[in-house]
Amino acid sequence: MHFITERLFAHTDNEYRIFSEKIIPDTHYKMLGVRVPVIRKIVKEAVNTGEFISFLTENHVYYEEYFAHGLCLSAIKDETEFYKALNAFLPFIDNWAICDSVAASVKKQAKNRELLYKNVLTWLKSDKVYTVRFGIVCLMNYFIDDEYADEILKLITRIKTDEYYINMAIAWLLSVMLIKKYEKTLPLIESKTLAPFIHNKTIDKARDSFRIDEKTKIYLKSLKI
Asked: What is the pLDDT of residues 182-198, one digit of tens each?
């Protein structure tokens, strides 16, 4: 048994496993019930000792193993090797929690935005739900600025799907765009051309933000379908 897996087993928590199974219903992987901060600590230890490398070649069974695997990827220094390993891993993601956490962990690789963006464009065309969601979350985390905002709006409106976890990610991204790039994003909301679910979820999420004033929240609410 690999060092990382041994450490994960040593920190199992049955009550937390039951809680996790309720809030992450989309995974089919067995859960041990290890809290995320603990997983991050174990990964950090493995990265510091170099033991994470052998873990990436292991066959996994448990949700927490896949979670740790995804977090280990950001420690790969060579960009070519990183994207090779990441693209090999993405098809194994089957839930929102691992997807979003791994997407948030690649800050170092996101410094080369041109290369990351090139990969995002490929991910958005995938037939895998969580590969598409991964691309959307990366757009939200690393590309909402004057350089990419207009392009993001074009990309997002081209995605047509009934997949809940993709559409929720789109609404999440657009709500952040309403916060950060309101003038650019508002015309899309005013046009009411988005799917009703995405449209209304975008507004709901934006209205939950403390960074949007009450007057704007009232106006956004008036735009709901």
From this structure: 999 999 999 999 999 99
Mean pLDDT of the chain: 97
State the Rg of the chain over Cα: 19
**Are 109 and 82 contacting, i.e. CB atoms less than 8 angstroms apart?**
yes
Angle formed by the axes of helices 113-123 and 79-89, nearest 10°: 20
How many Å apart are CA 190 and CA 100, to the nearest integer?
28
- pLDDT of 146 higher than 90: yes
Q: Which tokens sit at 92?
A: 């194994």
Helices 164-180 and 129-142: crossing angle, nearest 10°? Answer: 10
**Separation CA 57–CA 48 (nearest Å):** 18
